[in-house]
Design a protein that fits this description.
With about 140 residues, this protein is an alpha/beta fold. It has a single domain, classed as Transcription Regulator spoIIAA. Helix content is about 40%, strand content about 30%. The protein contains 4 helices and 5 strands, in the order E-E-H-E-H-E-H-E-H. It has a 5-stranded mixed β-sheet with strand order 1-2-3-4-5, with helices on both faces. Strand 2, helix 1 and strand 3 form a beta-alpha-beta unit. Helix 1 runs parallel beside helix 2. The longest helix is centred in the first third of the chain and has 17 residues. The model has no long low-confidence stretch (mean pLDDT about 90).
Length: about 140
């Protein structure tokens, strides 16, 4: 199961993952990510993972293939919050953080979900539509 969930910030794609993830579910998430990238100079992701068992072969191949296409687009990603209590997922997220230094990746426990949602909602300096939000107050 992979479902998109709401987030108050437009530049954030949020999803909940658990059980068995299919290729069509993953494609739905990829489509949401691509739409967000068209609308925003940088995006962030939040992935809530609970009791993830496996991905179908189609989903796994699609995930790896899409991931490889994103290596040249890492500057489009600001932050990724992984919300989980599954230790093996935390280890994978920490490995990805080391591999993809251009993207901030943090893990949060399920009890820290609110903090994770707030953290991914923050935009990097210079990315706000209102210059005052970036600290510019005119001459």
């Amino acid at each position: 199961m992979l479902d998109l969930i709401s987030h108050p910030a437009d530049h954030v794609v949020a999803m909940k993952v658990g059980g068995i993830v299919t290729g069509s579910e993953l494609q739905h998430a990829i489509d949401a990510i691509e739409a967000a990238k068209r609308d925003h100079p940088v995006i962030s992701l939040v992935v809530e993972i609970e009791n993830l068992r496996l991905m179908t072969l189609t989903a796994l191949l699609k995930d790896v293939g899409y991931g490889l296409t994103q290596l040249g687009d890492l500057d489009c990603y600001h932050r990724v919050a992984v919300v989980t209590d599954q230790t093996w997922i935390e280890h994978i997220a920490h490995l990805e953080e080391r591999l993809f230094k251009a993207v901030e990746i943090r893990t949060f426990s399920r009890n820290e979900r609110v903090a994770a949602m707030a953290w991914v909602g923050e935009l990097p300096k210079g990315a706000h539509e209102d210059p005052e939000e970036d600290g510019y107050h005119g001459a």
